[in-house]
Amino acid sequence: MASESYKVPEKMIKNVFDLNPWYFSKAYEEYLAFLHRLNDSVVGVHTTADMRCSDLVIDFINMLDTLEKWIDEIPLEDTSEQRFGNKAYRRFYERLCKEATELLSRVLPPNTHDALIELVPYFTEAFGNATRIDYGSGHEANFLILLFCLQKTHVFTDNDNQVLVLRIFHKYLRVCRHLQMKFKMEPAGSRGVHAIDDFQFAPFIFGSAQLIGSKNLVPDSYLKETVVEANAHLSLFLDCVKFINQTKTGPFHEHSNQLWNISAVPHWKKVNSGMFKMYEGEVLKKFPVVQHMMFGSLFSFDRSETMKESTEDSIPAPHDPSMPPIACQMPQRAPAQHGMFAFQIPSVANTSTVRSSSVVESGDLRNLHKEKHPEEHCPPPMAEP
Known about the structure:
globular; two-stranded parallel sheet; PTPA_sf; 43% helix; mainly alpha; 385 residues; Four Helix Bundle (Hemerythrin (Met), subunit A); two-stranded antiparallel ribbon
């Protein structure tokens, strides 16, 4: 791509009427395809699996490690009058913005330096907001968009997808957790128990792909802390659940209700496909999240020439009456509409049909709860702008 075509990214989704152009944009189509390629590259692959890392990948990871060292160097401020958001975080963010261009230019090949005017904004937005001192799935998306842009400029190729997820993105998660814990960052727009996690979403997508085909772990395995503790190193999904267990108290079905519900899905492949649909509904189609997205020549708001106007393929099939009752019934969706779930979750836990001694966890763990948790009800789908 010629250097003169690069431009400073700008916000284009300024009101709900800009949502439909976003849904049919090149950015939406290409970003989702990128996530699917990353996802496919880690199906059945453990986080600790051996994989070749180029010098560029190692340099990128070392650069992220530099950011983590900054976190340790910054002293905290007195927060006696604040519950969340230590103002010392602003010193980290100020340094990040000041040195971002130099950090990336030291890592990236010289022939891509012209693209830094587009890459730097995604990089600095990937680690939280200095005004609100918060972090959420929108900031996570900025880091993934950065990786998408780096692949589009041929810094990385499809051959690097596995490494992008299990080495670079994994390291990014570590840095963000360090920020969240030290500076007590507030979840950005968190829906509490209605969200997958207070801060992250993508690792649950990639992590569920890693567990596809597992003979020793089924979805309801992660309801048991000892199982999660023993296997967190194998999957980003389990690693995230471990982090939740370490940072939250109380019954799991109360502080992480969506995860508790999803554990009833019978196999990881269905969890993985459902996570993608939920990511679209809860992140890519939520105005409070995407209003902050920035678009340039690499991540383009221009209309896609290949995006189909119809979303017939995404309309769920009618519910089979022979199946268990549905906890959250999805209405049929037209373009630009979404419900809270894009996949159906049985309201009973005993959906696992695996009954083998090699299976770590299966069956009706939820019987441990004496009282049945009330079923959730979906809000109506968003009206088409």
